[in-house]
Design goal:
Layout (H helix, E strand, L loop, with lengths): L10 E4 L7 H7 L4 E6 L3 H4 L2 H11 L3 E5 L8 H14 L3 E6 L1 H13 L7 H4 L11 E5 L11 E6 L4 E6 L7 E4 L9 H19 L7 H23 L4 H14 L13 H12 L4 H16 L5 H10 L9 H18 L16 H8 L13 H11 L1
Parallel strand pairs: 1-8, 2-3, 2-4, 4-5, 5-8
Antiparallel strand pairs: 6-7
The structure holds 5,6-dihydroxy-NADP and zinc ion.
Zinc ion binds next to α7.
Amino acid sequence: MLNFKFSIPTEVFFGKGQIKVVGEQVRRHGGTRVLICYGSGRVKQQGIYDAVCAKLAEKGISFCELGGIEPNPRIKSVRDGVHIVKSHGIDFIMAIGGGSVIDCAKGIAVGACYDGDPWDLYLRKGEVKGALPLGVVLTLAATGSEMNGTSVVSNLETKQKLPIRMPFLKPRFSVLDPVYTYTVPPRHTAAGTVDIMSHVYEQYFSPVSGAFVQDRLADALLKTCITYGPVALKDPENYEARANLLWAGTLALNELLTYGKTGDWGTHMIGHGVAAHYDVTHGVGLAILFPHWMDFVLGEDTQGKFYDLARHVWQVPLAMDRMEAAREGIARTRQFFTELGMPARLREVGVAEDMLPTIAKTVVEFGEVGVFRKLNEKQVLEILKKAY
Ligand code: NZQ
Ligand code: ZN
């Protein structure tokens, strides 16, 4: 296990009715003029938007809004938000929604403290030392953006989807009310479950050995998804299922699993490469790609990690040969994603075969990806072809 400093500053208010804290929390973090970010008009129809406004108004906090933030959020929305912030003297950002709205809000929060075009920051060109404070009301269990410092944004003109990771982008507080996730449609419930599992896999498959605690925490989060993903699909208003998925999603990517080790993230980078060219839902792309990445990296040198996963998570029989068990674990992962209703091939989500080389180039634009197994352009292309 490597050295690390444990620091997860986001305060989480979990459970029914926790939206009540929004006004006092914004005040506490110095907010007086708030930009409320959201996606479609859904949050207005569901009353979540009005509830946030009411809590802000109670504390005498003024606000304006940026709606229409797209799934796979675009840099244009970030630019629009930065413009509003700079022209209205905004000092606090509130995001209501899933990872897309939160990531866009983070882009706005940091873009507001930067003089140039916010896209520079995603290109790792500009330098910035801080961001406006951010609060979140989460409505979808998936990305973990509600408790981490990552923002992923797409640029349609340049065909890029790029992440930034900055500690000061961690939200000051996040409201996690499982009831708000009752309305998540089956496709996004499934895609979110796959995304949570993928985050666990990305950190579980690490070149650093000896992080036993983190690995067993990983098992617990995977088992939570395997247990409750299907329940939430069948019974969308099952509080226990929604609550466990919501908390698993947050814990899967708030750095807890990655302290003391390094995560791989190769599959996510391939997924972002696909999404840069095709508007594929994040978790859907991962459901297709992850089992193929697993097939690709399984070998004599890596089978130990796969075997442990198969034993601890999928409970394959102890008597099974280690390599056979490792393969069985991958097969069970693939089967589980299929049972959730996820597609298994890139061709099923509209990707054209002749675009695979272009996607592979996009993936390695900033160099090889992955650390458990480093992947160059040729290897990325091989995985894409297998997933096609
Ligand atoms: O537009 P709205 O109304 O918000 O609708 C969304 C959207 O259409 C809808 N939805 C959300 N909550 C709902 C709901 N519909 C009904 N009831 C609810 N309660 O679901 C759709 C998908 O929402 P989105 O925010 O796009 O999903 P998700 O949370 O999966 O976020 C995906 C984005 O996050 C990035 C992905 O790349 C993708 O762009 N990621 C962010 C990460 C991070 N910041 O740490 C890490 C992830 O690996 C990921 O890359
Ligand atoms: Zn993800």
